[in-house]
């Protein structure tokens, strides 16, 4: 939410993408993401919340990839999906709050 807030503060319109993968993530995680998105609307108007079902992809990665690569591949798929959403919705950038310098 901090990266979203900072983008809104600079006048950027944002959309929130959440990857839901029950049973690996709880319904509480989805609700928390929705609540945080709702709170961010105070700083930038209407924010589209996009929920991406991710369980099948996550299970496929787990079944076929070496354990040492699971996190990297999971993040890569999330970024690829987010980039496709950005492309379809004519977005300009992906802001995810990660520090590339770390």
Overview of the structural elements:
The protein has one domain (2-88): Rossmann fold (3-Layer(aba) Sandwich), CATH 3.40.50. It has helices spanning 2-9, 27-44, 55-64, 70-88; strands at residues 15-20, 48-53. 4% of the residues are buried. The chain has a two-stranded parallel sheet. Helix 3 (55-64) runs antiparallel to helix 4 (70-88). By secondary structure, it is mainly alpha-helical. The mean pLDDT is 95. Helices cover 54% and strands 12% of the residues. The longest helix is centred in the last third of the chain and has 19 residues, at 70-88.
Brief account:
Residues 1-102 form the Thil AANH domain. The protein is 54% helix and 12% strand. With 102 residues, the protein is mainly α.
Q: Biggest sheet, open or closed, and with what strands and sense?
A: 2 strands, parallel
Q: Quick one: CATH superfamily?
A: HUPs
Look at the structure and give the CATH class.
Alpha Beta
SSE class = mainly alpha
Number of helices: 4
The CA-CA distance between the termini, in Å, is 19 Å
- What is the average per-residue confidence, as pLDDT, rounded to a whole number? 95
- The residue fraction in helices comes out at 40-55%
Briefly note the CATH topology name: Rossmann fold
Number of strands: 2
InterPro entries: Rossmann-like_a/b/a_fold (IPR014729), ThiI_AANH (IPR020536), tRNA_sulfurtransferase_ThiI (IPR050102)
GO molecular function: ATP binding; CCA tRNA nucleotidyltransferase activity
Organism: Streptococcus pneumoniae
Keywords: ATP-binding, Nucleotide-binding
């Amino acid at each position: 939410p901090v990266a979203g807030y900072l983008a809104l503060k600079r006048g950027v319109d944002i959309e929130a993408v959440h990857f839901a993968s029950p049973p690996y993530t709880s319904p509480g995680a989805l609700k928390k993401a929705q609540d945080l998105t709702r709170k961010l609307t105070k700083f930038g108007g209407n924010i589209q919340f996009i929920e991406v079902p991710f369980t099948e992809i996550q299970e496929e990665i787990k079944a076929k990839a070496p354990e040492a690569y699971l996190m990297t591949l999971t993040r890569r798929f999330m970024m690829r999906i987010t980039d496709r959403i950005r492309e379809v919705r004519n977005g300009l950038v992906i802001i995810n709050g990660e520090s590339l310098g770390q």
